[in-house]
Specification:
This is Thioesterase family protein. Residues 29-110 form the Acyl-CoA thioesterase-like N-terminal HotDog domain. This protein has helices at residues 8-12, 40-54, 188-194, and strands at residues 15-19, 22-27, 59-67, 74-84, 90-98, 101-111, 136-137, 153-157, 173-180, 210-219, 228-233, 237-238, 241-250, 255-265. With 267 residues, the protein is mainly beta.
Length: 267
């Protein structure tokens, strides 16, 4: 999965092959969360970019990434290993290391959508939502620089969320359009990062700061959109840990990615 470097996301996830499955990457603070640590979706993008350069197949099918410690701004390395070359699905693992410390480990399945099967059953349509142009621009109420990653994306919702107006709703579910500020077309690499690019819906119960422990993304088709509609849900918060499920739908109402993560609320 090669990129043109035209867009900010591509420059931030650029991967330089060093040989033997090793890639040099540079972590930037521009994608930090409110914790002032690298966003998990951004780190996923760094790792997945390196894997797809090594992969024989053109498309990621899934990625499961576990975070050991926060990545810091600066140079790091991703080491990619092919675990299995399959007839339809191949498997790779990847380890992100910085300053001699293991940062994250991922297992990635790859395939080719042009050779995928034809059986389809989609009883659940995209949630009803006004077009991005008819929605409220959340960037007008999110102070610039408050959370660096929120400056990388444009967000649109049917109404301003309660937590942004100082009145959390108590409902840990939201619908929100998302695109990059520079309007980069969505591919699987960006869709994977976008799964972890929304403010945690735990903000609606008064807890905005959250750190991802494990994140799994399933890619459902090749995106062909600039905006994606995110349906974000947290079902359980128990002893400071919470789940977060995300569905990403394109502007044609097609499901392009699903994710689940386990995260810890920062205190």
């Amino acid at each position: 999965m090669m990129t043109s470097m035209t867009h900010e996301f591509d420059r931030a996830t650029a991967s330089v092959p060093l040989g033997g499955g090793v890639h040099q990457v540079t972590v930037t603070a521009d994608w930090d969360t409110g914790n002032r640590t690298a966003n998990g979706g951004y780190v996923l993008g760094l790792v997945l970019q390196a894997v797809m350069i090594e992969a024989a197949e053109p498309d990621p099918l899934s990625i499961a990434i576990t975070f050991f410690r926060p990545a810091q701004p600066g140079v790091a390395e991703v080491t990619v290993r092919q675990v299995r070359a399959g007839r339809r699905v191949s498997t790779y693992d990847a380890l992100l290391v910085q300053d001699g410390k293991e940062i994250a480990h991922a297992v990635v399945s790859t395939h080719d959508w042009d050779r995928a099967g034809t059986v389809t059953h989609t009883p659940h349509a995209a949630p009803p939502m006004p077009s991005p142009e008819a929605c409220a621009d959340l960037t007008t109420v999110i102070p610039a620089g408050m959370i660096p990653i929120l400056d990388r994306y444009t967000y649109r919702a049917a109404a301003i969320p309660g937590w942004l107006e100082g009145s959390p709703s108590g409902i840990t579910e939201s619908l929100c359009w998302i695109r990059t500020v520079d309007e980069r077309p969505v591919d699987a690499l960006l869709a994977g990062a976008m799964c972890d690019a929304f403010p945690p819906v735990t903000a609606e119960i008064g807890h905005l700061a959250s750190a991802t422990i494990q994140l799994t993304v399933h890619f459902r088709r090749r995106p062909r959109s600039t905006w994606l509609l995110g349906h974000i849900t947290t079902r359980h918060v128990i002893d400071g840990y919470h789940d977060e499920d995300v569905e990403l739908w394109d502007e044609e109402g097609r499901l392009v990615a699903q994710s689940r993560q386990l995260a810890i609320l920062s205190t």
